[in-house]
Amino acid sequence: MKAIRRFTVRPVLPEALHPLSELARNLRWSWHPETRDLFQSVDPERWAASGGDPVRLLGSVSVRRLAELAEDRRFLRRLTAAADDLRDYVTGDRWYQGQAQSAELPAAIAYFSPEFGITAALPQYSGGLGILAGDHLKAASDLGVPLIGVGLLYRHGYFRQSLSRDGWQQEHYPVLDPNELPLVPLHEADGTQAQVGLALPGGRRLHARIWQAQVGRVPLLLLDSDVEENDLGERGVTDRLYGGGSEHRLLQEMLLGIGGVRAVRTYCRLTGHAGPEVFHTNEGHAGFLGLERIAELGDEGLDFDAGLEAVRSGTVFTTHTPVPAGIDRFDRELVARHFGPDAELPRIDVGRILGLGMETYPGGDPNVFNMAVMGLRLAQRANGVSLLHGQVSREMFSGLWPGFDPDEVPITSVTNGVHAPTWVAPEVFRLGARQIGAERTEDAMSVGGSERWDAVGDIPDQDIWDLRRDLREQLVVEVRERLYASWRQRGAGTAELGWIEGVLDPDVLTIGFARRVPSYKRLTLMLRDQDRLMELLLHPERPIQIVIAGKAHPADDGGKRLIQELVRFADDPRVRHRIVFLPDYGMAMAQKLYPGCDVWLNNPLRPLEACGTSGMKAALNGCLNLSVLDGWWDEWFRPDFGWAIPTADGTATDEDQDRRDDVEAAGLYDLLEQRVAPRFYERGQGGLPDRWIEMVRETLTHLGPKVLAGRMVREYVDRLYTPAARAHRALSPDVARELSEWKARVRGAWHRVSVDHVETSAAPLSTAAELGATLVLRVRVNLGDLVPDDVEVQAVSGRVDAEDRITDATCVPLKPASGPDDEGRWIYEGPLSLDRTGSFGYTVRILPTHRLLASSAELGLVVVPSEELGEGAGVLMR
């Protein structure tokens, strides 16, 4: 008989054990080994059965056992120490509070993301974007950065994955009960659950309650639409992560952005938390938050344009996708229907809203509303997530800044990092603690600092090798258990699974490959030459073994076919002891997989991997990277601690793509056969693989401090959050109006601005000039209705290519020397230094300038000389 309703009955904790509840509800336990050990000691069997989830553990432990613990003095001492430690962690000063410029730092930052990967006990993530967001919150907590996280609570989370007998991906959506998760509802002062609401077309409303997860010092607010006040359709808005059609996704993103701002305001009102001065949009899904903030300012008397300037000043936008296809785009009519007088934000003109997301640039679709485009237009500061991705993003979005070279597009980069306390195996931590002390090791993993990581250089080779072997052996045990469970799900009987006891060998070179399965990540590149792969797997002296995991999006049949192809190869009795595919990749599996592998493989189509943080997590455990030079590996690769798979970039057709895959797969095989495997199996005089161990040591000492989420968050604070807070404070309502009026005046007058004449003190251009010479540049410009304070006239010079394009440019402002004449023309002058040999050229340009602009490209306006001026883009030396 089936129950019509399900709920959880929790035992009442004895008073002496009350701190257990506080410890369970703060997700710091997910990266704090001592707290996890404490919960394990409550009931080891139930701890294992709960999947290491304290909330589930406390919901299942017997009353008798709780009574025993309440009388156990040793346990109570441990409990008191853990509770005191958490209290000190949450309330004490940390890195952020110790900064000399603390008065300039933002009082609070709101961080919006569609998914958060904090712990497997809170399954609200699908892949790298969510794991990055979770690591961002954890590192902010460790550093004392006053972040408020904002997301959605998906009742089915992301799907669970299994395989059919023939290797086809199956999806399952378990129902999550918030009361069984490490969450608490946010309550109003009268005890009712706090809610936010959105207006929908036709007079309907979308209600959502606010749940709170506590991530160390950082509150994470999650919105849940499965409430009684909603009709059935609205209750399902937060059903699945990245599920449903266009309107479903639009409603999710409106709830995340608009409802998220309202949730933050509610939280700050109820708790007294400082209101955010900076809003950080992690990818475009939450971009509507800017519209809600403009509407808030409208209630305070600012018109749309002034409100836009005020909102932009305090907004940071991070783009994670290197391809247009990865961006959410909606039909403009669908968006228009959900805004305006009969729906949400009725006091904002729908045309202004649409104008923020329209692809009004060459190659764009004017009938499409692009969430990333809106995100960029609503943020004064934007960044990609690695140096290469920043470059790709500047090129991809350059249409928003016409007239500027891609390298001048105002999108910077902050390379992602990973939260070491989450991803470093306890055994690795203990080895570091033995070498430099537990406190210094914890500090190194949270704050960074190369001097702390240098101590790894003193760890004996034997200790490193014993650790690597131990971690590999643990992975072998884990893989066999998971593989057995998978085959049982696929319908295999116990009698036919005896072979699993021989799967993998703790003394064989182990390679890991685990990630989402879109086509560009090339799950099956290793299968391009199956005979050659078999030879590598079965080599009599230097075999390799490969552990693979990953999920395809439920709607991506192409990705599912790739998984099936890989699974069918791995099912072959000749190699199934050397290559395995593990379904249902998630955080719990990853935390075993990264430490246990010797080599982490990554072979995307360059440059389509924005960052690729899985290799960072592996590196922190002493695993070496074997990767295409893409994302973070392109930035930090050195042959001292890994290998670069050669690439054949620049292909266009399907035939070219096949050839590229063949070439790069051959390069992968060559590296494995000729360099990676020989180095792993080569033994020195002491019987150890000395050169391999040295690469492990180099990985830890040189990559360790770089790949930390603590380093990443500090960069966000210094380079983006603090300047955004400063700009936000500068834009009082009057100043915001001034700036918006100035921009309107400049845009209205810009069509009359021109460069009329350019001359220098140089000899004729056919004559070579000498290095070190300085020319006087004289330029006549027409500013129309503008004045010199509105513009900057620049000389732009540098080396030129075969088409006379200036590269590695230097920009020098010129000064007004006279004017205006009767026609409004001004003369500007300034020096032009010939500081480089070879082909050298120059031009001039006019840009808008204002003290409150974050970039000279911000307005997307620039005037350069017409080609008729000739010398205006002159080449001086060849």
Helix content: 25-40%
Main sheet attributes: strand count, strand direction, barrel closure: 10 strands, mixed
| Backbone CA Rg | 30 Å
Number of helices: 29
pLDDT averaged over residues: 92
What portion of the residues fall into strands of 2 or more residues?
15-25%
Q: Which regions have little confidence, pLDDT < 50, spanning 5+ residues?
A: 870-878
Q: Given the helix and strand composition, which structural class is it?
A: alpha/beta
Number of strands: 28
Instruction: Give the overall shape.
Output: globular
**Distance N terminus to C terminus?**
88 Å
InterPro entries: Agluc_phsphrylas, Glyco_trans_35, Glycogen/Maltodextrin_Phosph, Glycogen_phosphorylase_DUF3417, Pyridoxal_P_attach_site
Keywords: Allosteric enzyme, Carbohydrate metabolism, Glycosyltransferase, Pyridoxal phosphate, Transferase
Function: Phosphorylase is an important allosteric enzyme in carbohydrate metabolism. Enzymes from different sources differ in their regulatory mechanisms and in their natural substrates. However, all known phosphorylases share catalytic and structural properties.
Cofactor: pyridoxal 5'-phosphate
